[in-house]
């Protein structure tokens, strides 16, 4: 009995030491990982950085502004799960309000939640105040939602990046000379105005893609209409910049899933129009 008591005491001592000892290892980063919302000694939040990495793994999105017609062109690849399907059920581009469109890249499920939240905000504001939701208010509320999940206990950040297209001239009574705008919202909640009129979300594109997009944007400012050839050129630039493996090309050695390119024209007159190429 005496030896049994000493064995029990030793077991409790080892168990207690294991409970209070910090967890070490490459996956936990030491004692600063006991909480998802704890800063490490360098001032970084590991969960936010991992959310940024998850968002960067999504399909690329490109967009340009047509200043002459106050319109925006967008494009993104869509990899289909089967040759018998024309859509995978996830809307890449969504209308939030008559003057606001939104797209997401990263974890599709997180993107759908964020798009639904933005649409709900727009509908509630329109119902309450009988006006279209201002872009500043929508960006602020979406930023607060994303930032909340970087510090909320028992939750994780959204692994999705949002691209917001804004057409000020689509709102009745607004200044018709206001130019379209493109905004990027990161998983951390930070909002960035893309002032050069060209957006490239995620890095699965070649280095000269942005220069080609700027050239196309400058050419489109002199055209009389948006869409058509400009939209086809935008999709061609995106297709050429993505590797065959990502885009699902088939050859004799390997068979990839079929894919297409979604081209979107967003104008004050016609709203959001999606074409497949």
UniProtKB/TrEMBL annotation:
Residues 32-54 form the Proteasome alpha-type subunits domain. Keywords: Proteasome, Signal. The keyword Signal applies. One of its GO terms (cellular component) is proteasome core complex, alpha-subunit complex. It holds the Pfam family Proteasome. Residues 1-25 form the signal peptide. InterPro entries: Ntn_hydrolases_N, Proteasome_alpha, Proteasome_asu_N, Proteasome_sua/b. One of its GO terms (biological process) is ubiquitin-dependent protein catabolic process. This is Proteasome alpha-type subunits domain-containing protein.
């Amino acid at each position: 009995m005496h030896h049994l008591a000493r064995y029990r005491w030793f077991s409790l001592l080892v168990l207690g030491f294991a409970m209070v000892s910090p967890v070490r290892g490459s996956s936990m980063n030491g004692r600063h990982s006991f909480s998802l919302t704890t800063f490490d000694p360098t001032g970084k939040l590991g969960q936010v950085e991992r959310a940024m990495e998850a968002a960067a793994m999504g399909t690329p999105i490109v967009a340009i502004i047509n200043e002459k017609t106050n319109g925006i062109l967008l494009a993104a690849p869509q990899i289909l799960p089967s040759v018998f399907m024309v859509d995978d059920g996830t809307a890449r581009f969504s209308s939030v309000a008559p003057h606001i469109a939104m797209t997401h890249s990263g974890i599709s499920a997180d993107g759908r939640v964020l798009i639904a939240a933005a649409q709900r905000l727009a509908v509630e504001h329109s119902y309450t105040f009988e006006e279209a939701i201002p872009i500043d208010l929508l960006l602020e509320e979406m930023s607060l939602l994303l930032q909340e999940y970087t510090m909320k206990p028992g939750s994780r950040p959204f692994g999705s990046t949002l691209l917001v297209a804004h057409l000020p001239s689509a709102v009745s009574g607004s200044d018709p000379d206001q130019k379209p705008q493109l905004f990027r919202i990161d998983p951390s909640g930070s909002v960035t105005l893309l002032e050069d009129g060209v957006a490239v979300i995620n890095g699965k594109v070649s280095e000269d893609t942005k220069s080609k997009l700027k050239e196309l944007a400058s050419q489109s400012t002199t055209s009389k209409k948006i869409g058509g050839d400009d939209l086809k050129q935008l999709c061609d630039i995106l297709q050429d910049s993505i590797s065959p493996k990502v885009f699902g090309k088939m050859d004799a050695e390997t068979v990839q899933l079929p894919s297409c390119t979604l081209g979107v024209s967003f104008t004050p007159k016609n709203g959001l129009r999606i074409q497949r190429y």
